[in-house]
Amino acid sequence: MTHVPPPYLGPERITALLSPREAVEAVEAALRDGLDPAGDPERSRVDVRHGQFLIMPSETAGSAGVKIATVAPRNGDIGLPRIQGLYVLFDAVTLTPKALLDASALTALRTPAVSAAAVRPALTRAAGPVSIVVFGTGPQGTGHVGTLRSVLRGSREIAGVTYVARRPEAYASLREAGVAVVGTGEREAGEAVRGADVVVCATSSRVPVFDSALVRDDAVVIAVGSHEPDVREIDAALFRRARVIVEDVGTALRECGDVVLAVEEGAITPERLITMRSAVSGQVELAADRPVLFKSSGMSWEDIAVAEAIVSRLEKNP
């Protein structure tokens, strides 16, 4: 039997095959079709001399897949990304490789798709224009804006976007393009949060990036930056006020410092955490009398849900 090498899908091909809105729909479909994030294998970390391997496997009825991401802390010194990797999608029965995907591009697509899927019920409970504040100017910060814009197109207008950065002077090109960029801790940042419909946190900060007392009761907050049990972007006070959505309770209590520390400080109990599956399926009501907070850990099932959608589109349009 002739062996056919699996196709490699780089960033441009991934972007061409699946739009942000379609990625959101793939995540929602996986949950509505019965996928339970609680059954996802834990990610594992393997130390090597110059960094780490992160290994994230998962499977569905039709596919098995694994993301192998590398973390090389000193890569920035030589102009390379800190995180790189590959995603391999296999046939579920024969375990024959079906495709190789650039892991960074896949992650950049699926992470904001998961966020948008988790909070879409809250985003669509009103019809007015949406003001967005983003802490972090990297691919995830900008990616969340693009995905939210794609999902809301036709239902709600994006009234404005404000980025909050540690060094706003470094983003002169954004300012020249009419995009608001303000400094962390500046008065303008606080005013932007006070008026925001959506606040996105996609930073490497180890401490809360804003005072949650500024967050409106009808606002949506998305936090994707921290993935360690002692690191947080969101203060405990917001957990006390908000309806809190997580992908999986066990994973959040193990990996998400925002959640772990809020529980330790008595701001929330594990029983109050809402699973993303419940939010997407409409089993819980996200009323506008309290903020909605989605804390993402990033899980393997999300990669395979989006990777399957990409490869399915490739098979229809080779």
Automatic annotation (TrEMBL):
GO cellular component terms, A-Z: cytoplasm
Domain of life: Bacteria
Protein name in the entry: Ornithine cyclodeaminase
